[in-house]
Design goal:
- The chain has 8 helices and 6 strands, in the order αβαβαβαβααβαβα.
- The protein has a 6-stranded parallel β-sheet.
- By secondary structure, the protein is of the alpha/beta class.
- β3 (108-115), α4 and β4 (137-144) form a beta-alpha-beta unit.
- The chain is globular.
Length: 229
């Protein structure tokens, strides 16, 4: 098992730092396509509190993000990371403009995109495959839990089979996949958390980000916590 830091050093030959960007996206369970309000653990900012703000252009966001982490990243090498909301939710021509703008600077070594498994139509996967020939592209999928009953309670609005299918299609396209898992969701047991991890590994994920559940200000979980739930 390797940490992300070790893996990036091995892959790129130096320490790299992620620059969190906001492409101005939303989510299908926020805009009414599948639901409203987003996942219960997510904030009104799409859990992109560390990302730069949209409306100032990708080049400007990159410069501001680099200044923010200048003391931590002495090598001056970065990965552009679309973190906020669902980073593949939009017309493919808009996505291509955003991704290419983020990859253009020489010091940007690769692209990471946080998204949902149900927001990866074939034309988007084809675009990511094309960009991966230029610079490495990784897709970060929010699974959180493989227990679909818990997922429904969290208003995730997709089933686990859609995650498994998305991993397969991304891997078939030669793309790297990282899976986000939350440990400690309401009602989950240790067995549930182990099952989620096993599901991600068996699906073929290249990496896992484990998040310990914490209640974020402005989320639905905060409301439930205030009611003693």
């Amino acid at each position: 098992m390797r940490t992300a830091n070790d893996y990036y050093k091995e892959k790129f030959g130096c320490k790299v730092y992620k620059l969190s960007l906001d492409g101005g996206f939303t989510c299908p369970n926020r805009d009414g396509t599948l639901g409203f309000g987003g996942c219960a653990f997510c904030t009104p900012e799409g859990s992109g509190e560390f990302a730069e703000k949209p409306g100032q252009g990708i080049a400007r966001q990159l410069e501001r993000a680099k200044a923010r982490v200048a003391d931590k990243c002495r090598s001056g090498k970065y990965i552009a990371y679309f973190q906020s909301f669902t980073g593949t939710y939009g017309p493919v021509d808009k996505l291509e403009d955003l991704y290419r703008a983020a990859l253009e600077p020489e010091e940007i070594l690769g692209l990471a995109i946080g998204t949902r498994p149900d927001c990866l139509p074939e034309e988007t996967v084809a675009l990511l495959k094309e960009l991966n020939r230029f610079k490495p592209v990784s897709v970060e999928l929010g699974l959180q839990t493989a227990n679909d009953a818990v997922a429904r309670d969290m208003n995730r609005c997709y089933d686990t089979w859609q995650y498994v299918d998305a991993v397969r299609r991304l891997k078939d396209a030669g793309l790297e996949v990282v899976t986000h898992i939350i440990l400690g969701l309401p009602t989950e047991t240790e067995k549930d958390m182990l099952f989620t991890t096993k599901t991600a590994l068996e699906a073929g994920t290249d990496g896992v980000k484990f998040h310990l559940l914490h209640v974020l200000r402005g989320s639905r979980l905060e409301e439930r916590d205030a009611r003693g739930e």
